Prior knowledge:
InterPro entries: 3-OHacyl-CoA_DH_NAD-bd, NAD(P)-bd_dom_sf. This is 3-hydroxyacyl-CoA dehydrogenase NAD binding domain-containing protein. The protein is an alpha/beta fold and 168 residues long. The protein is 38% helix and 20% strand. The protein is built from seven helices and seven strands. The protein has helices spanning 14-25, 37-56, 66-70, 79-82, 97-110, 126-130, 164-167; strands spanning 6-10, 29-33, 73-76, 88-91, 116-119, 139-144, 154-158.
Amino acid sequence: MVDVKNIVIIGAGLMGHNAGQIFLMGGYKVTLVDIKDEFVDNGVAKIDEGLKKLEAKGKLGEGVSSADLMGKLKKSTDTASAVKDADFVLEAVVELMDVKKQVFKTCDENAPAHCILATNTSTMSITEIASATNRPDKVIGMHFFNPPILMRLIEVIAGEKSSADAMD
């Protein structure tokens, strides 16, 4: 089983930035990636805003500040370099199979061999997405329900070749 410390989220939109906030609150280091700086910056701003709201309500935990959590967040527009040290990648890009497969191909070629690759899709074949990689055993679906901050429910979906370790 992989000891996850570094998480990369590809896609800084609604699901991506919300997942990023959740992972930061879970104590992970997070890198938020998108195709344009403005998209990444918008996602980072939304994470910061969300954390500050929770901090004001005393919901981040004792001794935990939004600034501390934001200190664990990096941003990038270069998927290949962002995934170099990743233990876990969550893809949250547009629901187009060709786009998802290209993202997974890039991740497969650049992420460490132990890295789990997850997609946030709820409608597309995990097996087909995994076919773009040389590690279909490490590809899973991880669907967050919206809004992820409030809905404490994640659907974990196996592809035909997803391993038990990846699913854990």
